[in-house]
UniProtKB/TrEMBL annotation:
Cell compartments where the protein resides: Endoplasmic reticulum lumen
Pfam family, one: DnaJ
Gene Ontology biological-process entries: protein folding in endoplasmic reticulum
GO cellular component entries: endoplasmic reticulum lumen
Annotated J domain residues: 398-466
Protein name: DnaJ homolog subfamily C member 3-like isoform X1
Record keywords: Endoplasmic reticulum, Membrane, Repeat, Signal, TPR repeat, Transmembrane, Transmembrane helix
TPR repeats: 44-77, 78-111, 112-145, 226-259, 344-377
Keyword Membrane applies: yes
TM annotation in the entry: 12-32
Ranges annotated as biased composition (Basic and acidic residues): 455-464
GO molecular function annotations of the record: misfolded protein binding; protein-folding chaperone binding
SUPFAM superfamilies the UniProt entry points to: Chaperone J-domain, TPR-like
Length: 506
């Protein structure tokens, strides 16, 4: 095969491969040339050889460095520029590829493959007039070029689509505009203006994350695109993604440390993030009151955006629950649920607070709502069953009410209440047989309440809705006072009066 035919065949192969970039690593095997009269021809030849081998192996960055060196040594070899453009496009760097393709066309105007490839780049960038001009020039030289014919046919429909899109957007027909813009973007994948328009449409219909996904690529499509970084950062901030917002605004500040929009936004977001981090650290340490102080400061700093108001109030709700501050917990959890009625954790926190307040019916209602929202959450299912047991228990015997103490009473309070009631209802304090029978029954209830609440294990069972002295609820049955009877000192070990009673009953 003659060298000219061989060279033409290789150029066709490169052109066909270029049509798929930048989605795939481009493998090319070009026959290299060195311009006559170029400096250090052996060294240039070596750079070209290594660059081509690295390009074939997919090592694009290393290949690029060798093509740089080859062009410095021989700035008039059009094939070297074409190879470097190939690498740039494979790396997704269309803006860097364009000057090299233009240089190829300048050095060798009849190299139609380079002109078609430049037209393809223009089309992907949305530069329809430039693309059209290149395709038409190719067809003027070679009317049978199928690639140029095919691509040229897309340009006018794209123009019409964009025009229709602008009209739809002015009429508020956002979904229809999105459909047309998506079709245009499939051809003009590197056109930032189309993505910006579609992002606006997504924002109008509340699809914020889809809008973000459209704006983010534009940060690379335009040089030093600080406005895009700021816009993405603000969009992330508005949907409550504070960390992502900070990441994007830092990229803006790398390009312009004093950016009039990015810098104040960064200071505000950073301060808010620091408050949340401090609050979470306090929560992890069990310092709930300190956490509330930070969260209330966050509310003052950002009182408008729904995501942050909800986040702050949710954590305040949980902190008050942990502090066993029933009124404040119910108030703040209620405010969360007014904002988001399907907030499962707020429903759980309020349900647990209702349990503390012994409002078991309300606790069951909240747990049931949470379970209806998501019936796969184990802690919700377990909480619902416990609330139901406590409700059932409250309709029977309530040891806390018998002793007149709160559910969070300490053992010392329980013992004190027991001693007082045991002395008050001691059967010897009553004269008639009927009064003694009533006192005896009451006295047994008081003793049973003390037995359960003074024992941590039994108390935990009772708090979970199980009566440890109820034979029906015990696996093997249980007589709370032993098999024959129950012996106890009503004043406990070392009690003041030192008298014992023994009651027998079935």
């Amino acid at each position: 095969m003659c060298s000219c035919a061989k060279m033409a065949w290789e150029m066709v192969g490169v052109y066909r491969l270029l049509s798929s970039i930048p989605l795939f690593v481009i493998i090319v095997n070009l026959q290299y040339e060195v311009s006559e009269g170029g400096a250090n021809p052996q060294e240039i030849d070596q750079h070209l050889k290594l660059g081509t081998q690295l390009l074939s192996a997919g090592q694009l960055a290393d290949a690029l460095s060798h093509f740089h060196a080859a062009i410095e040594g021989d700035p008039d070899n059009y094939l070297t520029y074409f190879r470097r453009a190939t690498v740039y496009l494979a790396m997704g760097k269309s803006r860097q590829a364009l000057p090299d393709l233009s240089k190829v066309i300048h050095l060798k105007p009849d190299f139609t493959q380079a002109r078609v490839q430049r037209a393809n780049v223009y089309l992907k960038q949305g530069k329809l007039n430039d693309a059209e001009e290149d395709y038409m020039e190719v067809l003027r030289v070679n009317p049978s070029n199928e690639d140029a014919k095919t691509q040229l046919e897309f340009i006018e429909p794209i123009r019409e689509t964009i025009s229709q899109t602008d009209e739809m957007m002015t009429q508020g027909r956002w979904n229809e505009a999105i459909e047309l813009l998506t079709a245009a973007i499939e051809k003009c994948v590197w056109d930032p203006s189309l993505r910006e328009k579609r992002a606006q449409c997504y924002m109008e219909i509340g699809e914020h994350f889809k809008a973000i996904n459209d704006i983010k690529p534009t940060t690379k499509m335009r040089p030093d695109n600080t406005e895009a970084y700021f816009r993405v950062s603000k969009m992330y901030y508005d949907v409550g993604e504070l960390e992502d917002s900070l990441t994007e605004v830092r990229e803006c500040l790398k390009l312009d440390p004093d950016h009039k929009s990015c810098f104040p936004h960064y200071k505000h977001a950073k301060k808010l993030n620091k408050l949340y981090e401090s609050a979470q650290n306090f929560i992890n340490e069990g310092r709930y009151q300190d956490a509330i102080v930070k969260l209330e400061a966050a509310l003052r700093l950002e009182p408008e955006i729904w995501a942050y108001v909800l986040r702050s109030k949710s954590k305040i709700c949980k902190s008050y629950r942990e502090l066993k501050d029933v009124p404040h917990a119910i108030k703040n959890c209620g405010e969360v649920l007014e904002m988001d009625e399907h907030n499962i954790e707020a429903l759980v926190d309020r349900a647990e607070t209702y349990i503390m307040a012994e409002e078991f019916e309300r606790a069951v209602e909240d747990y049931q709502k949470a379970h209806d929202i998501d019936n796969n959450l184990r802690h919700v299912a377990e909480g619902l069953e416990r609330a139901k047991r406590l409700l059932k228990q409250s309709q029977k015997r309530d040891y806390y009410k018998i002793l007149g103490v709160k559910r969070n009473a300490r053992k010392r309070e329980i013992e004190k209440a027991y001693r007082k009631l045991a002395a008050e209802w001691h059967p010897d304090n009553f004269r008639t047989e009927e009064e003694k029978k009533i006192a005896e029954k009451k006295f047994i209830e008081i003793a049973a309440a003390r037995e359960v609440l003074a024992d941590p294990e039994k108390r935990q069972k009772f708090d979970n809705g199980e009566d440890p002295l109820d034979p029906e609820q015990q696996r093997h049955g249980h007589n709370p006072w032993g098999h024959q009877g129950f012996h106890f000192n009503p004043f406990g070990p070392g009690g003041g009066n030192g008298f014992n009673f023994k009651f027998h009953f079935n």
